[in-house]
Design brief:
The protein has helices spanning 15-20, 28-31, 110-129, 134-144, 149-179, 204-211, 236-241, 278-282, 299-304, 312-316, 320-323, 338-351, 395-402; strands at 3-7, 10-13, 25-27, 38-39, 42-45, 48-51, 66-67, 76-81, 225-227, 243-246, 252-256, 259-263, 267-271, 287-292, 324-334, 354-364, 383-391, 413-416, 442-445, 454-458, 470-476. By secondary structure, it is an alpha/beta fold. Helix 7 (236-241) links the parallel strand 9 and strand 10. Helix 3 (110-129) runs antiparallel to helix 4. The chain is globular.
Length: 477
């Protein structure tokens, strides 16, 4: 279970534990059929883990890491997510002593928050000033005294939620320290460098673009679902033209353009971009929970070209009403730009016939229980917003589906140590359990990873399933 502690204010969540409880255990007969000998040893190359594979029927005697299917026993391989990606032991930017979580939450005005933000920006500017030219440093100093309207809106919002975030986080962190999940003494923590393995994956987003050049498939002659069985390699056209489903109780390895990806049990996915959503609609499922993590448009995304972004108009075109079951719970991740928050509440949800019910916050902390960024930082906050709402429809159906579930609370905190991989959000399965019925259909849009019991869609939906993000823990028979 991903929830370590649950309190009135919210939850302390263990993201890494959730991933490793997803069942990444592979039976040899499922992953590599036909009695093929497979070398499953994981070798370390610098900071990267690579899995080498070789097969033979009459070859040399297998080594210690080899797995052989026998008549009496079936070998198993168990994978775990690499824990160094959650080794966040120190804040990204250290807060001033009086601004640290342990000092309690002081009552401050909006003016004082602005002043605090300027002090924090000055500290950043001092570090970067060595690298910057004199001209750019002067430009920064001039910029510090002016707040644009977007920043003023963000500061006003922050002033309303900061006390709840500070005090709620403190309560949850204290519970985490008592139980030993968090460790106050950072000196005892490992200081491994969070190095992302280079060139992981095969360019999933680019592959989705390539798929548009494939010959169109006649829908009447094409299956809507590809069920994973014993094969590992899937033709790109099959993978990109229908929902892929692992209905078994074991994980599977799929090979896409020479790259290996782990697919957890009882999961399904569609790898495509927003222009190719028809296979998901043809899957003929209605979802009781839809989680959305849109690629919001912003200046830093435009500059970095790290991933494509969508305009507000494009996000509105996502066919949520066609995918949602009556009384569907819709959860949307929102950046700290008030423009996006207002858009979701005032335009997007009404357009989808979704009634806004609550705003929750995901708070990012270190393994020592500190905010990863100063709470009153101007440009980056140690929290993100989730907007929760329900699809409006038939009153009787809504009442029936609301039986035996709790109403959505207006404010809650999800506190966790974040993954150092960009945009790897914490799981919501555990925190939503009280507000949905068991065994409901769940969908994540713009997903970058898979979960058991969920359907996931996105043009990078397999990104964090790449086998290099995992370690082969042990061989079991």
């Amino acid at each position: 279970m991903s929830v370590v502690h649950q309190m009135t204010v919210g939850w302390l969540v263990d993201h890494l534990s959730f991933i490793n409880q997803c069942g990444y255990e592979i039976c040899d007969s499922f992953a590599y059929p036909g009695g093929v000998t497979l070398d499953t040893s994981v070798t370390s190359t610098g900071d990267c883990h690579a899995t080498s594979t070789s097969s033979s029927r009459d070859g040399p005697i297998p080594g210690p890491g080899d797995v052989i299917e026998t008549e009496s026993r079936t070998a198993k391989m168990r994978y775990v997510f690499r824990e160094e990606f959650f080794d966040v032991s120190k804040p990204h930017i250290a807060a001033a002593p009086e601004e640290q979580l342990w000092q309690g939450c002081p009552e401050v005005s909006l003016t004082e928050i602005k002043a605090s933000s300027n002090r924090e920006e000055h500290r950043e500017g001092t570090k970067s000033g060595i690298r910057d030219s004199v001209a750019s440093a002067r430009k920064k100093r001039k910029r510090k005294s002016v707040f644009n309207q977007g920043e003023l809106d963000a500061l006003e919002y922050h002033s309303k939620v900061r006390n709840f975030i500070w005090e709620g986080t403190l309560h949850l962190v204290q519970e985490g320290l008592k139980s030993g999940f968090l460790h106050r003494n950072t000196a005892e923590l490992s200081c491994r460098k969070n190095v992302v393995p280079g060139h992981i994956g095969c360019g999933l987003a680019e592959l989705c673009e390539m798929a548009k050049q494939f010959t169109a498939v006649n829908e009447s002659d094409h299956q809507a679902v590809h069920v994973l069985d014993d094969e590992t390699s899937i033709p790109e056209q099959d993978l990109l033209s229908c929902v892929t489903e692992n209905s078994s109780n074991s994980a599977k390895i799929v090979v896409l353009m020479g790259q290996k990806y782990l697919v957890p049990p009882k999961s399904s996915f569609l790898l495509s971009d927003i222009s190719c959503l028809q296979p998901l609609l043809s899957y003929k499922k209605k979802y009781d929970v839809i989680v959305i993590d849109p690629p919001w448009e912003n200046k830093s995304v435009k500059r970095s070209n790290r991933y494509s972004h969508l305009s507000s108009w494009q996000i509105k075109q996502i066919p949520v009403p066609a995918l949602a079951a009556p009384n569907c719970l819709v959860v949307t991740w929102v950046t700290n730009r008030q423009k996006h928050l207002r858009f979701v509440k005032d335009e997007l949800y009404p357009y989808w016939s979704v009634k806004t019910l609550a705003e929750w916050h995901w708070v990012k902390i270190t393994r020592a229980g500190e905010f990863v960024l100063p709470l009153d930082s101007l440009h980056k906050k140690p929290y993100e917003v989730l907007v929760l709402g329900r699809v409006q429809g038939d009153v009787k159906e809504t009442l029936r589906k609301s039986e035996d579930v709790l109403p959505i609370p207006e404010h809650k905190l999800i506190v966790s140590v974040p993954c150092s991989l960009h945009s790897h959000k914490p799981p919501l399965t555990g925190v939503l359990a009280d507000f949905i019925k068991p065994d409901v259909e769940c969908l994540e849009l713009f997903a970058r990873n898979l979960q058991p019991g969920w359907t996931s869609w996105g043009n990078e939906v397999l990104k964090f399933q790449h086998i290099d993000y995992f370690t082969l823990l042990q061989n079991e028979t």
